[in-house]
Write a structure and sequence with these properties.
This protein is α+β, with helices and mostly antiparallel strands. It has four domains: 178 residues, Glutamine Phosphoribosylpyrophosphate, subunit 1, domain 1 (4-Layer Sandwich); 182 residues, Rossmann fold; 88 residues, no CATH class; 65 residues, no CATH class. It is built from 23 helices and 21 strands. The chain has a seven-stranded mixed sheet. Strands 5-6-10-11-15-16 form a six-stranded antiparallel sheet, with helices on one face. The radius of gyration is 24 Å and the shape is globular.
């Protein structure tokens, strides 16, 4: 390792180091956008002109400084992290719903900031020990992300937050909240919401595809990925569908309908369980075990397709269920009751939820009435305690890790609270991006303009004809086969996870029964021993929960920041 001016040369990569007062910002690759008010790292897009931003107009720079960054979050969007000089000092701002990670470590007299653990270690910083209390919390709430990490001393700047140094103290504060958009939504008709969603989704897909280059779309034939396919119909893009030996994981017929409809060929590839390596973690550069084992085969097939067809990025519909409000509760009925009172509208929504959930109307109405009570309007994120020991449950605590979006204003609408809970959980998609991936992953449905447009929709409008995500279905119905628009079924990775369990049975057994989680007393060893003791290694019904333990165990073995 050697220094050249403000750069650090290491392993053939150029790392730019930008010092300013109490902060040192590490940037791998191309230098960031330099502006009068500081620096902007990562993709930046302008809502007024759907394209990448390479320079900012002087008037925009002045407004960013005067507003202490608010102008940046209101007029622009993307995966950026901004390093701003304001009247109150240096401010680090992470884009709302941005997918560029922002990790920081305070090592007096500076706070070091980077996008991944490997980059932080290039400074010669001491190794980071595992934070076992946070491992326990991650096991119980695997999809929540916030300012905590699973490594000691390493913190994460959450999306839509600022970090500022004041009198040698770091201050973390939100600069964007989904509650503001849900509570101050414009009053639009159903058709106006539909038009807005169609326009915003199409613009964001076009902008992201234009910035990253030709994408390969992971197409299941489900609603979310099919919507993205419809927006890519006129662009250079490849369609890839993955299937399993078990019919439950084979959605090629649906994907083929979409491909035929938009006039593009479909690449089909089977998930091969022999290509899964349980001891390897794709989250090694991340401060938490945020990647799943079955994703190894997804990314291998994506890399093959990208190499064969010249694709520059992977595009997925990840987070679509969350953004398009696929709630499974009577909360939207409660919302309509609280907003409009008891009447035809409320009973209409109750009938939709009844048909969707196959539940009797009286049951739906009783549930809605209970959720409408002032003391019952918060949306609770329940822990997953499967295979965890009593010790792990105690260390995880009774409450989930603090998350700003899960602290609603007084007496929120229960459907809105449930929707924002879905958005909080959807962050696991973007926070789990592999920094060492061959090609970047794009998640257009989690783009800030899309989420803000969907937050403005009253919760009950998302349900129609016994189906959820109704406005998204309406918005893209003119561009998709009717069977896809009306589809209710959904494929899952469950069958492939079962294959993984059975094929790698011995390796998984040794990993869990003799690994770090067992040493720490965090897993239910008697129960796991029974699961692995069968002569025929049949996967348990909750195999997904079991394999989440494997994800954590693999991360503990391979995380570059981990040293005891």
């Amino acid at each position: 390792m050697r220094r050249i001016g403000d750069r650090l040369i290491h392993e053939g990569h150029r790392v730019h180091i930008h010092h300013e007062k109490d902060f040192a910002l590490l940037v791998l690759g191309d230098p960031p956008i330099a502006i009068d008010t500081g620096l902007i790292v990562g993709p930046l897009f302008d809502r007024r002109h759907p394209s990448s931003v390479e320079t900012l107009a002087p008037e925009d720079q002045a407004k960013i400084r005067a507003s202490q960054g608010r102008h940046l979050t209101e007029i622009f969007w993307g995966g950026y992290v901004a390093f701003l000089r304001t009247d109150e000092g240096i401010v680090l701002l992470r884009a709302p719903l941005g997918d560029l990670a922002c990790l920081f470590v305070h090592q007096a007299p500076r706070t070091w900031v980077a996008s991944d653990i490997a980059l932080l270690k290039r400074t010669g910083m001491a190794p980071f020990a595992t934070d076992w209390s946070m491992i326990a919390q991650h096991l119980a709430w695997p999809y929540l992300r916030g300012s905590w990490t699973c490594l000691e001393k390493v913190m994460a700047l959450p999306t839509g937050h600022k970090l500022q140094s004041r009198e040698a103290q770091l201050c973390l504060a939100p600069c964007w909240s989904p509650w503001a958009f849900a509570e101050n939504a414009p009053c639009l008709t159903r058709d106006e919401h539909v038009e807005r969603i169609a326009r915003v989704v199409s613009n964001c897909v076009a902008t992201l595809a234009g910035h990253w280059g030709r994408p390969v779309l992971l197409l299941s034939g489900g609603l979310d990925s099919s919507i993205l396919a419809a927006t890519l119909a006129g662009r250079d893009a490849d369609l890839l569908t993955l299937y399993t030996r078990d019919p439950i994981g084979d959605e090629r017929a649906y994907a083929a309908q979409v491909a035929d409809h938009i006039g593009k060929p479909l690449i089909e590839a089977r998930r091969e369980v022999s290509e899964i390596h349980p001891l390897r973690s794709a989250a090694g550069g991340l401060p938490w075990p945020a990647r799943r084992l079955f994703e190894q085969e997804t990314m291998r097939q994506v890399d093959l397709a990208a190499a064969d067809h010249g694709a520059a990025a992977l595009m997925t519909g990840g987070g679509g269920d969350n953004v398009f409000c696929a709630l499974q509760s009577a909360a939207p009925v409660a919302d309509r009751l609280l907003v409009e009172g008891p009447g035809p509208g409320m009973f209409s929504t109750a009938r939709e939820i009844s048909a969707l959930a196959s539940a009797p109307m009286p049951t739906v109405l009783r549930s809605a009435a209970a959720k409408a009570m002032p003391w019952a309007r918060r949306s609770i994120v329940r822990p997953d305690h499967a295979y965890l020991s009593d010790e792990a449950r105690a260390r995880a605590g009774a409450r989930p890790p603090a998350h700003p979006w899960l602290t609603p204003p007084a007496r929120p609408l229960p459907g809105v609270a449930g929707y924002i809970r879905l958005l909080a959980l959807a962050q696991s998609f973007s926070e789990g991006r592999d920094p060492a991936a061959t090609i970047p992953t794009i998640l257009p449905l989690l783009a800030q303009p899309v989420v803000e447009a969907c937050l403005a929709v009253p919760s009950w409008l998302w349900f129609e004809k016994g189906r959820n995500r109704a406005l998204a279905r309406r918005a893209f119905a003119p561009h998709l086969p009717r069977e896809i628009v009306e589809r209710r079924s959904k494929g899952t990775p469950d069958s492939f996870q079962g294959e993984i369990f059975e094929h790698h049975h011995a390796t998984l057994r040794d990993m869990l029964l003799g690994g770090a989680l067992a040493d720490q007393g965090l897993i239910d060893l008697p129960r796991l021993t029974r699961v692995f003791s069968g002569t025929v290694p049949m996967a348990p019904p909750d195999v997904g929960s079991l394999l989440r333990l494997v994800d954590v165990e693999a991360w503990l073995r391979s995380a570059p920041g981990r040293h005891e």
